[in-house]
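Can't paste images in this forum, so I'm doing it all in text. The chain is below; anyone willing to post the predicted structure tokens underneath?
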Amino acid sequence: MGMYDRINYQLDMQQHNTRIDYLLDMHDIRINYQLDMHDIRINYQIDMHKIRINYKLDMNDIRSNYQMDMHDIRINYQIDMHNIRINYKLDMNDIRSNYQMDMHDIRINYQLDMQPCYQD
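Text version of the structure:
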């Protein structure tokens, strides 16, 4: 994937009322990600120039584990709700992306490696 490549990704799963909008712009290295499912809304934005994270979670009954180490700039993040599992790891070294989805359990394993960035 080139440095100026842009990926627009949208997934509609009507049987689960799930929508995932995903935008990755390698030039600004910005990630906008939205997941709507059974009144579960996750809005978060990461701007890799300023390392800014805005994170909003609105759910009925959810467990959330969130860990951030600003030295390596690594984020490990897991959400479990109604068999919805999201495992998410960010490592700012390499701009690689691995993505796997199982439509029955709605299981998402997602990894992003990016260029080193530092907090303003």
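Strands lie at 6-13, 18-25, 30-37, 40-47, 52-58, 63-69, 74-81, 84-91, 96-102, 107-113. Residues 6-113 form one domain.
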